[in-house]
Recover the amino acids of this structure.
């Protein structure tokens, strides 16, 4: 982590920051099933692509697994109590696809339905609105054996799963997220091989974008067919992109990355068409030249909100390793998070403005999800001082509260409630407002939890 320290005046004026919060803005926290539930072989759950991936030597930084994670499967009441005491409006969590529908097709696992019923009911009893993500990366392994997101049929499997979930929980869920960060699945899982399933297809991974977007559209239709009461949206990651210089090749490659990371996943949703690259790069995205019009009609079905996951900006230089046409350039002007990303809250404002500029009236209300990894400092009394996370949280909240012209910001979600199993980083990158002890899974609220608690109490 960059030693440059990020200060925030809001750490010493929490009531002042709270006063800036727009009236009606929902503030919540998030987790995902694979990262916190554990119980990976309990009560009918079958393996996902990530179960297989984490069992392969060298895939996970610390050689850990999610077998126990934060043990949230057995600690529902404890976690809901912490949410209630925190004072949040909503809780975003994901349904474990391999838990609820273990083989990716067929009926629901009754034990899983009972588990999520209990969680949803306890949230509602605590006055917390459930925000459910259908698919947060844990694809059932049988679907991966059939090709995963390279197989068009997986889109239809997601739709069937969405209908099943809608029938089971649609009377009580406030908001539905169809897919979390499909760009990360394509780039990390199928292009670069750092995420499950570990494929290194580079630009041959592009069909997974189409199939995930189609799955989203079909899932929207399925949820509405199940007559769910809640709002429906998606969560796309968006990174403002800058070229490393004004040289033609750098500018061109920055446009390429902006297209495949950002616009490839938002243009079809909001404009009903796939983005076009300059002529000299168009051959790279030829996979989208003959998309069926009916697919685009399904993908661009109206949604009730647009989920935006913001992590950091990206700086691009022409030329990369092997056959890769570009590389990522650091941002020395910013401090970095524990995972090495630039801590650049001002670029959250850029991301919001870019969405408003590109999509205008086609942009639905926006729900943000923001979070960062930082090391925890354990004090003599056992308390945990994560000042850097507090500053990150405060500065990004301040930007969100200020808003951006043309953006109807309706929600802000902090990722995450608990320290969990952070994918390929294992347990080396804590994101939580609450520390989870590695051996006992006991919960200890951090300074950032107390900071957010004070802010919510002062609204």
């Amino acid at each position: 982590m960059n030693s440059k320290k990020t200060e925030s005046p809001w750490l010493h004026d929490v009531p002042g920051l709270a006063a800036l919060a727009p009236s009606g803005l929902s503030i919540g926290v998030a987790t995902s099933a694979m990262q916190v539930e554990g119980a990976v072989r309990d009560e009918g759950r079958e393996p996902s692509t990530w179960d297989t991936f984490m069992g392969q030597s060298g895939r996970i930084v610390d050689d850990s697994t999610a077998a126990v994670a934060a043990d949230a499967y057995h600690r529902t009441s404890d976690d809901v109590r912490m949410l209630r005491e925190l004072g949040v409006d909503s809780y975003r969590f994901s349904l474990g696809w391999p838990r609820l529908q273990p083989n990716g097709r067929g009926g629901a696992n009754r034990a899983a339905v009972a588990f999520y019923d209990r969680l949803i009911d306890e949230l509602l009893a605590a006055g917390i609105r459930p925000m459910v993500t259908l698919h947060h990366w844990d694809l059932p392994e049988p679907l991966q054996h059939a090709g995963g997101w390279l197989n068009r049929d997986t889109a239809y499997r997601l739709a069937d799963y969405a209908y099943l979930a809608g029938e089971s929980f649609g009377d009580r869920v406030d908001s539905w997220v169809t897919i979390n960060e499909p760009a990360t699945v394509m780039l990390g899982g199928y292009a670069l091989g750092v995420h499950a399933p570990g494929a290194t297809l580079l630009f041959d991974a592009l069909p997974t974008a189409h199939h995930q977007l189609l799955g989203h559209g079909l899932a929207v239709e399925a949820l509405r067919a199940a007559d769910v009461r809640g709002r429906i949206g998606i969560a796309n990651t968006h990174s403002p992109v800058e070229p490393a210089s004004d040289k033609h090749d750098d500018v061109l490659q920055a446009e390429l990355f902006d297209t495949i990371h950002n616009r490839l996943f938002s243009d079809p949703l909001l404009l009903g068409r796939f983005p076009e690259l300059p002529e000299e790069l168009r051959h790279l995205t030829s996979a989208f030249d003959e998309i069926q019009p009916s697919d685009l009609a399904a993908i661009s079905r109206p949604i009730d909100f647009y989920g935006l996951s913001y992590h950091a900006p990206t700086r691009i230089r022409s030329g990369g390793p092997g056959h890769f046409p570009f590389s990522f350039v650091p941002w020395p002007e910013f401090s970095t998070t524990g995972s090495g990303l630039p801590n650049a809250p001002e670029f959250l404002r850029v991301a919001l403005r870019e969405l408003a500029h590109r999509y205008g009236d086609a942009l639905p209300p926006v729900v943000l999800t923001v979070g960062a990894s930082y090391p925890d400092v354990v004090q003599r009394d056992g308390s945990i001082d994560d000042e850097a996370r507090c500053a990150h949280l405060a500065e990004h909240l301040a930007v969100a509260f200020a808003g951006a012209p043309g953006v109807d910001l309706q929600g802000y979600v902090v990722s995450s409630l608990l320290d969990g199993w952070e994918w390929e980083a294992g347990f080396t990158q804590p994101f939580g407002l609450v520390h989870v002890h590695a051996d006992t899974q006991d919960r200890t609220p951090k300074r950032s939890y107390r900071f957010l608690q004070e802010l919510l109490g002062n609204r």
About this structure: The longest helix spans residues 248-271. The domain at 9-231+266-309+336-457 is CATH 3.20.20.80 (TIM Barrel). The first strand starts at residue 26 and ends at 30.
